[in-house]
Every structure is written in C-alpha cells, then in structure tokens.
C-alpha cells in the first residue's frame, strides 16, 4: 500500500500541472471569443471631419462665441429671447414696473422710519383733495355746454356736471353757462334756460342761481364790450328763472338797491317789465322765441317777407344775412328764394329786380343758400306761374328778364334754365303789354 501511494505521488509530481494557469487561460479564451462575436454584430462608427466653416453650418451645429454663455436666449431654439417674467424675476433686478406702489411693508433702513409712532397707532392718513380754481371750473364747463348745444341731451349734461363740477362750485357753473349762451343764438339761450330749470333743485339750488346772477350783473360793464345787448339778455334770463320757479320774484327788488349802475338797473328793469305784463309768466316760456323748425310755416314765410321788404328799403345785405341766420331754418331757405322772385314779379321794377338779384347772389356766394335750395325756389315759381300770372299779367315777361339777369351773375344751375317756362303766343294788345314792351326796349 505504501508503494502504491508513493507511485501515485511520483506520478503526480511528474505530471504536475498548474491548475490556476489553466483556468485563467480558459477564461481568457472565452472572453476573446465573446468579444469577437460582438465585434462581428456591431456596426462601425462613421467619423465626420469638419474642415471648414461652411461644412459646420451645413451640419446644423455652430460653435458660438464664449460671450453667449450669459445670453438669455433659449438654448433649445424656441422662444423669443425675452427676459423671464417680463424683467421682474431674477437676482439683482428692479422688478416689474409699478411694483413699488404695491408694496405694503415699511423699510426699517429708511431715515424717516419711526417704529414708535407705528406702535403707538397715533398716525391717521386722510385723502387730500386739491382745491380747484374758478378758471379750471370754467374750462370744464365749456365743453359740457357746447356738447349740450349739439345734442340737446339734458340727462347727459347732468351726468357730466355731477362727475366734473364740485358741489361747492355750482354757482360758477350757472354763471359760465349763461356767459356761453350770450355768444350763441336765441335757440341756444332757450336750451340754457331749460337746462338750468332741469338742474334745479337736485344739482343746483336757489343760492347758486342767485349768486350767479349777482356776479353777471356786477360784470355787465365787461360783458357789454362784446355783447351790446347784454343787459336785455341778462334780464331775459332773470325773468325766465323766476317764471321757472328757480329764484323768487323778490330777487329783483333785493338787487335794485345794490348798485346805481345804469346797465345794472336796465337789466333788472327789463326783467321786472317782462314779469309785470299781462300773462307774463306764460309768455316767458317763449321769451327767446320758438326756434327753428318748431315755428309754423306761415310765421316763417311772414318773417322772410319782412326780411325782403326791409332789405329793399335799406339795401343792407349784412343785416339781411344776419336775420336769415337767426331764423335757423336752412332746409326752408327755398321759401326765401320763392318770396324774392314773387316780389320781383309783383314790383315790375328794374331797380327792385336788380336789388333782389344782388341779394340772392350774395346769399349764394356766402353759401347761406345752397344751389339745391336756390334751384328748388325757382322751380316752385315755374310751377306756380300760371296762377301767379292771373294776378300779374306780365309775369312771364318779367320772369324771363329776372332769370336772365340772375343767369348773368352765374348762380343759377343749368336745370333752372332748361325748365324756364314760355307762355307761347302772347296777346300783347288785349293785356296792355304793348306799352311795356316799348319801354323795355328803350331801357335796353
């Protein structure tokens, strides 16, 4: 047995093999084989060289300068490059515009900061309303009055007054309304009286109106420089305010003893006269007259006829223009043209025809009467000529002469000349026209 063991031991020694080495070699072989297999299945990487700037741009990537490091632009290519939060966020920034007004904290480092006063609670904050001057009030009243004259909306005017005019300056409001109305037409003065009546007593009171009239009467000497009839107009306003129960009738008697000025007393006397006449309170509702198209047609026709008669007597075109504007009926000016032509036909006088033609030309040049209104007035006469000729036998002849005179002054349209009527066969002898025709030829 011993020999056997020795033999075995010898055998082992002769065939001695390093086991660790064998194992390591086998593991290395396996790793080698697996790596070769992986290499077979992997795709080789492609290496692109960028030799120029053009190639780099084409590849879609540009190496930016180092200054882009702190750029606020978006790195991913999106966005507009605006600062975050509108410039309100981030370190070392001022914040959003106006954010300092929303802060409620107290700055302890402020030199005016007093912690004792805050802790005692004896600080009271009050809103300070700056005092408004009289000139500022007048500047605010003027656009309100002018807008009211345009639309006639009393409710809108009241809202504007409540919003812009302080309660303790309402006397200046009334005074300024009347001063503005002095420079405007009678219809605007009527609107002013209506507005004062509607404002009383909720927006203005009796003392406001009385104080306004006192100031106006005291400033009459200055108002007369621009408005010669200021005492009469102020008297009308006072009388109308009494009639509308805005001020008491004793106001006139109270004011009479406050000044001996002639214009002052004239205004009060005029107001007292209007209130003292029979049915004065009722008549004062039309103290400014019925304005514009509210007047009856007959009344307007009569006033236009009186206007023409006064012009024939005086020859004052400016006065005639002023009277026509005061009527405030531009849509009815064709009636004036009609009345002027009929007056020329009835007068049968070359002097009056020339004067009326001159007046119509002045109105046309000043665009006081439009071409449409002028044409309509002449065509109305052409339509009524058969009836007019019954009272004026020479109407056709006189009309031809008058139209020819107006046509030479170049203010008639071609439509008027085309529609000029002709009577046809004329019986001069039976109508007594023969003598007129002879005289007409001699004049020309």
UniProtKB/TrEMBL annotation:
Alphabetical list of InterPro entries matching this protein:
ARM-type_fold (IPR016024), Initiation_fac_eIF4g_MI (IPR003891), PDCD4 (IPR039778)
Which keywords accompany this UniProt record?
Cytoplasm, Nucleus, Repeat
In this chain, the stretch annotated as Disordered covers: 28-93
Biased segments, Basic residues type: 39-50
Pfam families xref list: MA3 (PF02847)
Which compartment or compartments is the protein found in?
Cytoplasm
**Bias (Gly residues):** 78-93
Known PROSITE patterns for this protein?
A: MI
Specify the MI domain's residue ranges.
136-257, 299-422
Similarity comment text for this entry: Belongs to the PDCD4 family.
Record protein name field = MI domain-containing protein
